[in-house]
Amino acid sequence: MAIIQARSLTKIYRRIKKQDGLKGAFKALFHREVVKKAALDSFDLEIDEGECIGLIGPNGAGKTTLVKLLCGIIQPTSGSCDVLGFTPGMLKNEFRRSFAVVMGQKSQLWWDLPASDTFALNREIYDIPEEVYRANMDYFSDLFQVKDLINVPVRNLSLGERMKMELIAALLHSPRVLFLDEPTIGLDAIAQKQIRQFLRQVNQERGVTILLTSHYMEDIRHLCKRTVVISSGKKIYDGPLDMLLDRFQEYRVIHVTFERETEPQLDAVEWVEKSPYKAVFRIRRDLVTPTLQEMLSLYDVDDIRIEEEDIGNVIERIYHGENGGDSCGQVS
Question: How many CB atoms are located within 10 Å of the residue 330 CB?
């Protein structure tokens, strides 16, 4: 059953455009040129309970605007949205207790205090029963292995450790929906992996519905079976991530090692690396089989490894409407 619904959701921002200098400022007092920009344009979305949805798109596409609208932080210009049976913009207490939001570039932790103080404050704000608070603290601190860090001042924690504390603070009141806006931004590979494992476990064991925006495609790939692509405020794809990648992943990267010194000559390939005993090239997916057959017949090949094209290149192609069209199409 859908617990998040958006219907023709539109958000238009207005800003004043003025000329440079004192003359421009004086002119703007009497004649203001207003520029309108649709951050979100007739956006439709349905999310079922327990889903983990990846929301991807270039900077300025409207991802954060959508998250803010669903949280009730800002009001839509037109259209409607419903989260857990509530209209977010009304900000009823029952609604605010049912969701949590974590933004990678904004912190709810007090810089000079330990995270335990923030946890205690959230307990009072959300009126969390003592037994629920203790159970959740034990569960999340064990899951993230941060029991020895809870009473350390936030300023003394690493970026990855702070993000773990942010997630614990967001989940202490047992929300049904978790909105995540770039939660792994700036983290190293190890911290990103830990965050992904944590979120996967929370989604699977506790049934928390997650809407995740991220520029790190490994986050989307490891957590989300369904992906929504947004560009210029419009939804251009909604469906399985595998189907999206299969359509736009046009190339493969082939690694070949040779038994003896070799200088291979092949058509229709883009050479990435060439050395006497090794060659790496990029080739269209439909040409992989005939090219490898040709290589095996001409050269003494020791080993072959086939890699999928880098997922970042695939997503960049989607954003720019390549593959013979202006968009990747929409899948229900």
Answer: 14
